[in-house]
Amino acid sequence: MAQIAKRLWDKAGKKRIPLTGSFELLPTCNFSCKMCYVRKTQKEVNESGGLLSADYWLQIADDAMELGLLFPLLTGGEPLLREDFREIMSGMLDRGLQVSINSNGSLVDESMAKWLGHHKPVRMNITLYGSGEDSYQRLCGNGEAYEKVCRGVELLKQYQVPVKFNASITRYNVQDLEAMIQYAKSVDSPIEIASYMFPPVRRDSSMIGKNDRLTPEEAALVKVKADYLQNDAKWFYSQIMRYQCFVPVTDEMLQKQSSSEGHEISCRAGRCAFWVDWKGNIGNCGMYYVAGKNLRNCSFKEAWDCIVEQTNKIRYSPVCTNCPNFFLCHACIAMIYNECGDVNGRPEYLCRMNQAAAGYYQEFAKLLKDVPDISESSELPEIHECDWEKLI
After folding, report:
1. How far is CA 365 from its chain centroid?
2. Looking at the chain, which runs of residues are DSSP E strands?
3. Does residue 380 contact residue 240 with C-beta atoms inside 8 Å?
4. Are residues 166 and 128 in contact, defined by beta-carbon separation less than 8 angstroms?
5. Sign of the C-alpha dihedral, residues 208, 214, 220, 222?
6. Which pLDDT score, from 0 to 100, does residue 392 have?
């Protein structure tokens, strides 16, 4: 099955077929997360002309389907805030589309869970912001939501709706990392940890390279700790070996890297994926709009052809793609743009994060040096909190 999926995505990328698209139904949310890059108030939405109708979103889906859309993602803001969410969701399912949903999970009540049980998404992606009321209050300004999220997950499981967790780690909830991973295990759902937070340039153009987030070194430690907590010993040991290849970058190396040609982008954005924001603007992804088209002013095909043409011309920052550590960092074009305000810049936050991760993995190698056959073991030795503190 995995091989079939890979072939499908590879073909879509080569043929420039928009196989997947994100539909940002609204920018409003019942949370006010400190690091959010999209959230707007209802007043701001109204002043900008309001939201697109359900019929309009379904027309976009129809137009995209003619070019190959199969896997739409309904996102926001919080998409379940829309009174016509079920109309949009069921309309896409009726068209044979394989729909996924991004949500904070707090609005999933018995009625919604039962409905989703009969109108199943491919997956319900729920973002976790902590393991208790205090963390939800600090980060999201909505402490009471925590119990609602847990209840929503319980109901989704009851109605056999597939759930995957994403966890956004900041200084407001970093202490909950292990508890969030354990919670995901307890409800038998995968969880993906993100310690890198995009600068919210979409919300505020002055925020290039800034956000209310962890320091690069703290973000690196969270990444390494999450890898340790979620994987077996053999995989973790392979990560240690990979990061032993890290090369400290000198000024001379930077000069040489910047003088070489940048590589083509290799992600799906603008090749087989698109993003339509709540105002009808279509671009490569939610964090990087290369074509700047609005679907109110042109057809989907015209917009997609323009995105493909512009994407083919894009080159990564040469200082990044020619860096000997690029295979460890994987800085995408959107990260570079939002960190630097330019696709040719050097995202120093990511460079520092990557270098720190390499250092932490080397420290782990020392902690594990007395463990026999660690590369073949299925279990990692316990690392006590005092040992974690030594790594900081």
Report:
1. 29
2. 20-24, 71-75, 100-103, 123-128, 163-168, 191-194, 273-276, 281-283, 293-294
3. no
4. yes
5. negative
6. 44
